[in-house]
Amino acid sequence: MTQYLLGVQMVEGESAESAPGAVEAVNRDMVAQGVWVFGGGLEARSAASVVRAHQGNDVLITDGPFAESKEYMAGFWVIEAPDVETAQSWAARASKACDRPIEVTPFDA
Question: What is the rounded average pLDDT for all residues in the chain?
C-alpha cells in the first residue's frame, strides 16, 4: 500500500471553521477502515520558523513561514491506500468535512 499526504489548503483571511464534528467523523471512519496513519491541524503560520543550513556549521533560523503567500497548508492526514483513486475518494470526504480544498500527494518511498 502507498502512503498519501492529504493536505488541507487554506487561504489567509478565510474562516477556518467547519461543521461541528465533521472532521472528527472522517477521522473515525479512516481509523475504522484501516487507512489512518497520522493527521492533525497546524498552528498559525506566525508560529512557524525556517531553519537553513549554510556552508560550514552556520545555521540561520528565521521567524515566520518559508513562503510569503496567501495560500498555505492548515492541516493534513497521512493515509495508506491501495491506489490514488482511493486516496482521492478520502480527500473528497475530507474536503466536504472541512470545507477546504485537499491536495493529494503520494509519498516517494
Answer: 92
